[in-house]
């Protein structure tokens, strides 16, 4: 599902979302219960964080009008479904800030949160250093580390504090003749505030002229107070199901096709424009840093 950015890209509660679906997609008996429909989502984001391409799993009641092969109200060929019509029906009933781009068959026991093995996020920020130097800092985060300082209510000895970052890159971005940085981070899973604190710490290192060894210190048992970057620049880019797609008995691979990718890429351009315009009009990063300095005083 993609989140429209005509306004502020709010997060839609799955429960209220299901109540808006008509009877030919979800029965009235099941529409009031998330458990009955089996709703799960691939990633949750902080308040104010955008989701470019999230994944939601649920049980849909396929009405006869979507199926070409029906006999005595029984589906003869489960693959012969007009998915485009079904997607159109879904989008007509969802709020304007949510859009369904595709539907895939999955196994009966499928749980999107558990089956997702990679999540990619992007963060857009005003440029605050050279790309090469920022990339050097990003490289320090690649691998498995203890991120207890990058979230809340996690102790150093909690096994879940250890997270694996597979890739972390930064590139230059220009919008309205203003320079920005676009961070792309790929990992198995991320904790609350983790990515925003990573970007904030990179900014902290540059502003306070800290040595790169500071990052290794943040992975230690010692407690550190780290900057947390503004939520407006972060968005969920993609969820991957590499392990699930390698199974032989799955109905379909969970992959984005060319048509869907074009829609997502076009939507991302609009999202980046929206984020940069927010930075320009509200001076978000400048105000954020002022607040940090006042708090330190």
UniProtKB/TrEMBL annotation:
<protein>
    <recommendedName>
        <fullName>Pseudouridine synthase I TruA alpha/beta domain-containing protein</fullName>
    </recommendedName>
</protein>
<feature type="domain" description="Pseudouridine synthase I TruA alpha/beta">
    <location>
        <begin position="138"/>
        <end position="241"/>
    </location>
</feature>
<dbReference type="Pfam" id="PF01416">
    <property type="entry name" value="PseudoU_synth_1"/>
</dbReference>
<dbReference type="GO" id="GO:0009982">
    <property type="term" value="F:pseudouridine synthase activity"/>
</dbReference>
<dbReference type="GO" id="GO:0005634">
    <property type="term" value="C:nucleus"/>
</dbReference>
<dbReference type="InterPro" id="IPR041708">
    <property type="entry name" value="PUS1/PUS2-like"/>
</dbReference>
<dbReference type="GO" id="GO:1990481">
    <property type="term" value="P:mRNA pseudouridine synthesis"/>
</dbReference>
<dbReference type="GO" id="GO:0031119">
    <property type="term" value="P:tRNA pseudouridine synthesis"/>
</dbReference>
<dbReference type="InterPro" id="IPR001406">
    <property type="entry name" value="PsdUridine_synth_TruA"/>
</dbReference>
<feature type="active site" description="Nucleophile">
    <location>
        <position position="46"/>
    </location>
</feature>
<feature type="binding site">
    <location>
        <position position="121"/>
    </location>
    <ligand>
        <name>substrate</name>
    </ligand>
</feature>
<dbReference type="InterPro" id="IPR020097">
    <property type="entry name" value="PsdUridine_synth_TruA_a/b_dom"/>
</dbReference>
<dbReference type="GO" id="GO:0003723">
    <property type="term" value="F:RNA binding"/>
</dbReference>
